[in-house]
Design brief:
Strand 1, helix 1 and strand 2 form a beta-alpha-beta unit. The strands form four sheets. The chain has a six-stranded parallel β-sheet with strand order 2-1-3-4-5-10, with helices on both faces. The protein is built from eleven helices and twelve strands. It is of the alpha/beta class. It is globular.
Amino acid sequence: MRIVLIGADGQLGSDLKKTLQGEDLFPLYYPEFDVTRPQAARDELTALSPEIVINTAAYHRVDECEDHPRESFLVNAVAVHELAGICREIDATLVHFSTDYVFDGGQRVPYTENDRPNPLSVYAASKLAGEYLIRNRMDKYFLIRTCGLYGEAGPREKGRNFVDAMVGLSEGKEPVSVVSDQWVTPTSTLELAERILELIQTRHYGLYHMTNEGQCTWHEFAQAIFGFLGRTPCLRAVTSLEYKSRARRPSYSVLENRRAKEIGLSDFSHWKDALRAYLAAKGLLG
């Protein structure tokens, strides 16, 4: 397959680049390729003539988005709308990533693709707008909602991912405060990349939830990290209100991989198993 990968040096992009290395792959990097410059994007993608365009570019500093709504919607919605139009023009399939944050956390069972979104933040609203604009403009797309990503490369904009941040904090003497009232499913970007490779070889277009299995709070996630490392820092459970983030997060945003299971994609591992594999790959387990 002839594939263009936008954001190939990001956390997910890096694992996609490794996973797709057997394909005819063209990695693109910011700022040389900028999704907010539609004419330049159109020229480059037209010249490359890919069968599939995978877009991992996003403005995903959730709290910062509250202060910069224009920039959030420019990257997460307007640019995505333009990219969908380009892909339709060149007859390429678009793979795009969204977020568990499109839900408000009002239910206590995992969300399926059929559940109604209700975003609580600028970031979530901008990502949901991007979803709708893709679905409105083209038919050949894979739209992936996922949750709690961590990977070896780390998020380019945010610095360290949650796992690496906790590994670093585990060596200190200061108390570590982590929210205990937000339920998620931590997800390995390596496993997600492997499932994306499977998915793009099908013609089962549409919206998918794709995460590791199981659920936990961020506090329980931190506990598991410290447990695998055999370290016992002072871990303090705090509420979302105490943490005082600018953007509201859903209290429950666990996703059910219903459609992926229906079409027969390989099952994701449990989040604890994926975490153990990640720490082992980084040489952190004895």
